[in-house]
Amino acid sequence: MALLTDTSSSAGAVKSRVVRQYNFAQTLPALLLILVFFVLPVLALLLRSVMEPEPGFGNYAELLGTTTYLKIFLNTFIVSALVTVVSLLIGFPVAWALAIMPSRLSTVVFAILILSMWTNLLTRTYAWMVLLQRTGVINKTLMGLGLINEPLPLVNNLIGVTIGMTYIMLPFIILPLYGVIRRIDPAILQAAALCGATRFQALTRILIPLAAPGMVSGALMVFVMSLGYFVTPALLGGTANMMLAELIAQFVQSLVNWGMGGAAALVLLVVTLTLYAIQLRLFGPARIGER
Amino acid sequence: MTEPFLHIEGLRKDYGIVTAVQNINLTVERGEFMTFLGPSGSGKSTTLYILAGFENPTAGDILLDGKSLIATPSHKRNIGMVFQRYTLFPHLSVGENIAFPLKVRRWGKAAIDARVREMLRLVRLEGFEERKPAQMSGGQQQRVALARALAYDPPVLLMDEPLSALDKKLREEIQHEIRRIHQETEVTILYVTHDQEEALRLSDRIAVFSKGVIDQIGTGPELYANPSTRFVAEFIGDSDFVTCKILSMRDGLADLSIGAGAPIAGVPVHGIATAGGTASLMLRPERLTLTRGTAPQAMPSLPAAVLDITFLGSNIHVAASTGSGETLSVRLPFGHPATAGLSRGDTVFLGFDPAGAHVFCG
Amino acid sequence: MLLNFDRLGAWKWILLAITGLTAAFLILPILFIAALSFGSSQWLIFPPPSWTLRWYADFFADPRWLEAAWTSFRIAAIVTVLSVLIGLVASFGLVRGRFIGKEALRALFLTPMILPVVVLAVALYAFFLRIGLNGTTTGFVIAHLVVALPFSILSITNVLEGFDKSIEDAAVLCGAHPLEAKIRVTLPAISHGLFSAAVFSFLTSWDEVVLAIFMASPTLQTLPVKIWATLRQDLTPVVAAASTLLIIVTIALMLLAALVRKGLKS
C-alpha cells in the first residue's frame, strides 16, 4: 500500500521530478509482470523460430513452402472471412434495431448478448457440438420437416466452425456497431427523407455510409480475433479444417517442434498486429480481446 | 374565391392520453413568411413535424394547393426543411449535400452542377463546394442546410428553430440572410421559434402557440397592440398585470375599478367578462406615464411606491408597487424630468390610456 | 426516417424479426445445455425421454470434477486480488503521472488483450518448462494475471480519470495524510471501478481455457481444462451439468455486478 502514496498536489521543480519518478514507480509491478511473463516469453519463442533446429530462416521456408501449411493458412483466412461477413450481415440489422427499439425490448436483447458473451467459451462450443451432431436437434428437426432424408454433416467441417465462431463473434460486432448507430442524429435521416430519398436510398446513401466506420472497425476486430481462435475450431472444425492457432499448438504439443511453432506464431502475430495497426490508424483505440 | 395555398384544418395530435396539439386551423398565402411562436412544449414543433410528415395527425387535414398531404410520405411531399440541429450529411461535401435531393430526383449531372452553384451563390458560400460539414462553422452549416432545402424548389420551406444553436450576433446576421433569401426566392416559409424578437423581425404573420392551441394569429403590430389572450400579451412585448373588478360592460369595453380607486371607463375586454367579477388589467411598461406629487388629471392613474430604479442606457426602468402589492414596471427615456432625484420609497402616480390597456378575464 | 422505430413501416417488422431470431440464436443453445443437463438420455437426445439429476450426482461424486472446480476458484480468487491491487497502483501511476512514454506503457499493458492468446500460451509454456512452473498454481496464476490485468487497468484508469483529484487534495489540506486521503476519499469514490475490475478479473481467470490447457498437468487442472479433456473423448451429459454450473456462477456474478452498480448509483 505504500506505493499508493504520492505528493503530487503541489508543484516545485525538484518535487515534481520526485513525483514523476514516483508515479512511474507505481507502474513497476505491472511493468515487471508484463515484461517477464509476456514480452520476454513471446520474444524468446519468436527467437527460437530462427535459432532451432539451426540458425536461419529454414522454418519460414518450410512453413511457406509446404502445401499442407499453406492450406491451413488459406483455411484460417476463409473461415475468418466467412465468420466476419456473416457476423456483419446479421450484426448490422440487429445493432440498428437495438439503437432505435423501445428500451423495454432492447434491455432484454442486451441481457442476452451479455449473458452469451460471458458464458464459458467451452460451454457454448459444447452446445453447438451437441446441436449439430448427426443425431442432434438440428438434423432431427430438418428431417422431421421432411427437408432432408439423410442427416447433414454439420460438425467437423467448415459449416460447424462458421456457425460456432459466428455465434461467439456476434456480440463483438453488434455492441460497437450499436454505439456507432446510436450516435447518428435521427434528424439527419429525417432530412434525407424530406430531401426526397426513399427508405432504400436513405439506407444505402446515408445510414450505411454513416455506419461504415463502425462496420469496418467491427469487421476488422472480428477478423483478427477469428484468425487466432483456438478452442472453437479445434472442437467444431475437426482435423481436416485445422486453423492456424491449432497448428501452433500442435507444433509445440504433439511435434515438440519449437522452431516451427515459433515461426507459425510469428506469422499469426504479424498479421494480427498489422491489422490492429490499420484499425488503430483508421479509427483510434478500440477494445479487442479473446477470453 | 381562389383556393388558399396552404390550409391546415382541425389538426390534432395525441400521444396516448396526452394531447400535443388540437384545433389547429391556419391558412397561409403563397410566398408568406409565417412564424409559429411559443414556449417549448406549446405544440409549434409538433405541428411543423406533422407538416413534414414525421408525425401522423390524430385528426385533421393539411391541404397544399387544395390537395391533402396526409397520406403522402415525407419523401414525396416535396417540402424543404432546415432543422434545429445540424443535419448536413457528414460524409458528403457541401456540394454533394446540396446535390443529394437532386440526385434522388434523378436530375442530370449538368443540371445538378448548375443548380448547386446557383444555390451556393444564393447563400453566399461560393467556393465552399468541396468542404466537409465538419470543417464549417455552425452558421455556415445552417446556410448549406438552407441551400439543400431550397435546391429542389419546394413550394414550402419549414424551419425548426434553425438559429437556436448560434450566438446572438451570428443569429442576427443569418436572420438578415433569411429575409433576403425569402424575398429573392419568394418561397413560402413556416418558421418555428420561441424567440419573440426573431419572430417579429422575420415574419409577415405570427401564430402564437400556447398549450397545444393557437391563441392568436396576426401581424406583429396587431399582436402587440391587440393581444387576444393574456398569454399573447405576455409573450409579445413586456407587460404587467393588475387585478381589477369589472363594474359594467358595453360593446367590448369595460368600466372597472382597482382597489378603492375611482372607476376607469372604456378598457377593451378579452374573454368572457361578467359585471362584478375580477379580471386582470394589462399595462405595458413603455406606455405608462410617471408623475410625482399629484395624480394626473387627463388620464386614470394608480398610486405606487418606487421599489427599484435601474439605468439601462437609453432607458430608465422604474419598478413600483401598487397599494395591493402588485409590481408594475415603467420604462422612461433617459433624462425624463420625472426621474430626476427619484429614489426608493417615493410615491408616484402611474397613468395610462384606457383605450390602450386590456382586460383579460378567466 | 430510418432511425425512428415507429416510422419504419414494414422494415420495422423485418428488423424485429432478425433481432428476435438472433437473440434466440444466442440464448437457445445455452438454455438447451441447461435443459439437457437434467435429461436422462446418455446420448443427449432432445427432448429428453425423462428428467433426472443423475449427471449432477455424477459430477459431485467424482473427486476430479470437484477438485478441478476448487482449483479454478482458488486460482481465480488469487488472480482477482493481485489483478486489482497491481492494476490499482499502476492506474494511479498512469493517470496521475506525467512521465515520458506513459502512453506507450499504457498500450503495452493492454497488448495481452489483443494478442492471440494461443501465442502467449505457447510462449509461457516454453518459459515455464525452463523454470519449472508448468502444472503449478503459481504458473496458472501468473498466466491468468497477464490476461486479467488489462481488464483491471482499463476499468480502474477509466474511473480514476473521471475522479477529480482536487477532492483528494482537499482532504489532504484538511489535515489527512496523503495515504489516508487516498484510502478514505479516493478509494470509496472509485469503488465501482475496483469492483468491475474484480469481476472482470475473476471471470477472465475462471473461464480461461487456452492458457489453462497448456499450464495444466494431470494433477492440477481447472474446470475448463477438465471439460476440454472430457469433450475430446465424448459428449457426456456430465459436461452439460458442469456447464450449467458454470453458467449459474456467471449469471450470479453478473447479477451481483448489476446490483452493486445500482447500489452505488443510489
Largest sheet of chain A: none
Distance between the termini of chain C: 37 Å
Total number of domains of chain C:
2
Number of helices of chain A: 13
Radius of gyration of chain C: 23 Å
Query: Largest sheet of chain C, if any?
Result: none
Name the CATH superfamily assignment of the largest domain in chain C. Answer: MetI-like
**Outline of chain C, from the CA principal axes?**
globular
Query: How far is the N terminus from the C terminus of chain A?
Result: 30 Å
Number of strands of chain C: 0
Mean pLDDT across all amino acids of chain C: 90
Q: What is the mean pLDDT of chain A? A: 88
How would the blueprint of this fold be written?
The complex is a heterotrimer of chains A (291), B (362) and C (266).
Chain A (H helix, E strand, L loop, with lengths): L12 H14 L1 H24 L6 H8 L1 H34 L2 H16 L2 H12 L4 H8 L13 H25 L3 H9 L4 H29 L3 H6 L7 H10 L4 H26 L8
Helix pairs in contact in A: 2-13, 3-13, 4-5, 4-8, 4-10, 6-8, 8-10, 9-10, 10-13, 12-13
Chain B lengths: L5 E10 L2 E11 L4 E5 L6 H9 L6 E6 L2 E2 L11 E3 L11 H11 L4 H14 L15 H13 L5 E5 L7 H18 L2 E6 L2 H7 L2 E6 L2 E6 L1 H6 L4 H6 L4 E11 L2 E5 L6 E7 L7 E6 L5 E4 L8 E12 L2 E8 L4 E7 L13 E5 L6 E3 L2
Parallel strand pairs in B: 3-8, 3-9, 6-7, 7-8, 13-20
Antiparallel strand pairs in B: 1-2, 1-4, 4-5, 9-10, 11-12, 11-14, 12-13, 14-20, 15-19, 16-17, 16-19, 17-18
Chain C lengths: L9 H27 L17 H8 L1 H34 L5 H13 L2 H15 L5 H26 L2 H9 L4 H12 L1 H17 L2 H6 L7 H11 L3 H29 L1
What do these coordinates show?
The complex is a heterotrimer of chains A (291), B (362) and C (266). With 291 residues, chain A is mainly α. Chain A has 13 helices and no strands. Chain A is 76% helix and 0% strand. Chain A is globular and about 70 Å long. Chain B is α+β, with helices and mostly antiparallel strands and 362 residues long. Chain B is 23% helix and 35% strand. Chain B contains 8 helices and 20 strands. Chain B has helices spanning 44-52, 94-104, 109-122, 138-150, 168-185, 196-202, 220-225, 230-235, and strands at 6-15, 18-28, 33-37, 59-64, 67-68, 80-82, 156-160, 188-193, 205-210, 213-218, 240-250, 253-257, 264-270, 278-283, 289-292, 301-312, 315-322, 327-333, 347-351, 358-360. In chain B, the strands form 4 sheets. A 6-stranded mixed β-sheet of chain B has the order 6-7-8-3-9-10, sandwiched between helices. In chain B, a hairpin with a 6-residue loop joins strand 12 (253-257) and strand 13 (264-270). Chain C is mostly helical. Chain C has 2 domains: 5-36; 56-265, Orthogonal Bundle (MetI-like fold), CATH 1.10.3720.10. Chain C is built from 12 helices and no strands. The radius of gyration of chain C is 23 Å and the shape is globular. The model of chain C has no long low-confidence stretch (mean pLDDT 90). Chains in contact: A-B, A-C. Chains A and C meet through helix 1, helix 2, helix 4, helix 5 and helix 6 of A and helix 1, helix 3, helix 4, helix 5 and helix 6 of C.
